[in-house]
Design goal:
The structure holds two protein chains of two kinds.
Chain A lengths: L5 E2 L11 H22 L6 H27 L2 H6 L1 H20 L5 H30 L2 E2 L2 H23 L4 E4 L2 E4 L5 H29 L5 H14 L6 H4 L2 H23 L7 H32 L4 H23 L5 H4 L6 H5 L10
Antiparallel strand pairs in A: 1-2, 3-4
Chain B lengths: L1 H18 L4 E10 L2 E8 L3 H12 L8 E5 L3 E4 L11 H6 L16 E4 L13 E4 L12 E7 L1 H8 L15 E8 H6 L24 H24 L4 H24 L3 H18 L7
Antiparallel strand pairs in B: 1-2, 1-8, 2-7, 3-4, 4-6, 5-6, 5-7
Helix pairs in contact in B: 6-7, 7-8
Classes of the chains: A mainly alpha, B alpha+beta.
Chain lengths: 364, 293
Amino acid sequence: MPGLTTQVPGARKLYFVSGPLDFALIGGLSILTFVALRLFYAGERTASVITLAIQLSWVCNWPHFAATSYRLYHSKDNVRQYPLTALLAPLVVLAGAAGSFAWPRAVAPWFVKLVTVWSPYHFSGQTLGVCLLYARRAGIALGKRERFALSSFIYSTFVAQTVRYEMGIRTFNDSGIPYPSLGLPHWAGWAANAWMIASGVALLFLLTRGCLKARKLIPPIVLLPALAQWVWFAPGGDWRSFVEFVPFFHSLQYLVIAWALQLGERRDAGDVVPSRRFVLSESARWGAKNVALGAALFWGLPHLAAWFGTPLAFATGVIVSAVQLHHFFIDGVIWKLKRRSVSSPLMVDLDELLRPPAPAEVPA
Amino acid sequence: MRTLRAAALALCFCAPAAAAGPRLVPQRLVLRTAAGDVVLGLYEGAPKTAAQVLRLARLGVYDGARFSSVVPGFYAEIGETGQRAAPLSPRQQAAIRPLPAELSSLKHRRGVLSMAHRPGEPGSARTAFSIMLGSWPQGDGRYTVFGEVLEGLDVVDTLAQAPADASHRPLVELQVYKAQVMTAAEAARTYLAPAHLLVVPGGSPAPQPPPAASGPAAAAAAFLTLAALAAYACRARYPRAVGPLLLCGALGGVFSLLVFLGPRAAAHPPLAVGLFLALLGALRLLSSFETPA
């Protein structure tokens, strides 16, 4: 059925925690930060901005990478579900990293470049997923056209931003690894921007038409991730003090969803009783593991490589790229909402996790 | 090598006292450019100019600045605010003030920095300056000489080799990716990208990069062969693995294309577009890497 307001079965509470908190973590905070930086702060990467971004990496960015690895590898069942992703993907990434160490001038710059292109693509996949997740929670099934327009708009913001970086001849630098732009022609920038604008207009048109037909408004949080990504990549993409924090906001969004999934799965495993104690202890345990694993991957591994004689900056560049590629590989596979084992625990909300079900709700 | 560089910079730092040349301010300005990195030292003898250039660099005014005029063996000019990749913020604009000329007996010789100003208006200097690549006696006593290149003059030579129009404006984008203010000690420690060949459209005077080494080619061929063989071997006993193995091969293939053709892409826009689309296609395919068991 075309349109967007089909009531889907299994619709639950709209928010994981509460309206304000979900709004903030899913994208609202990033938009507010951009507005604040735009109004009250400079556009350059100052020492304070860089320092704060690095500090946030320890508690948010790195743990979000770790959360993916933890989710895939923490149980044999998960590895059995995705054996190729679990076992083959690391080998492919290792091959790229080995090539980078072997040929630091010929291969390493392109290894880093692959990450810089894949990373915003991966952001787009997550943004689309979070939009669809909230739509599902709101009991809305997007029609094919609306879904296509939403997907097209989200991916066009990534393409427009990437093309902007890849136009002309310039050299970027990541951990001391210089890598060149592709040198895309300037018309590519025009084309990408035209695609983004056309997709945005089409999306607005289709959603407005759908809302008018159904006489029902879409909850704003369904579109908030898409709006946030547009801010990250379009107006915010040239405001360097803001760009520094975009990975943090992406990670924050990810951690909210991964946290909900973790608690939902633990509850569904049936060996725990929902309670405040359960939520606090499981959150603390899961959080601590991810912080520790994140530090090991992003700080420990490069230092280990440096201990063997590789320059630390270069080792950091290659290893951090490898860890990120591994994350992109896994994330593209394990978060398919079509799978009930993924979507079902993601319908959870905090109230269900805090209180045991009333006797009437327990199935016989 | 790094020790040698540190020693050389330390010598530069101490040299003014020993050789009674111009004394340098304690800070260094490191320009991360499209063709490598350059370290600039600024003279104490031009305090207002040095202070403004450092302040503007800290504010990011030179980040994204372009070389607006280049003449090999003569000069490369940088820092015109109208030539930036992105417009200046209000704060940056407010920080730019007209500078009085700080003339001295210092000569315009290869390696020195000369503040640009409008002809006949010595007090109109603002942000733009030239890195001299040769002598220019006509500028002596007329333009402020306020510093010199301490490291990376070969990078500026490389930039100046880019093709330019009749007004000496480069036909390709020669950008300062980042301008960083550091102490002398930090500048001695920081990684400096060496002068690398500038690939320019149109087969111009700039030389093409050397072909990639045979090592990566052999490794790529081995990887792709292995992926294909593994997919073939799995087709009967473990058919689920065939798709992912072929996808790994596709990603490896696109990555190999990037490694071998990427350095030439900037000179051939259709190739650049093709590589970019191939990369997007590979990423799109990888989203269906594995269907769960």
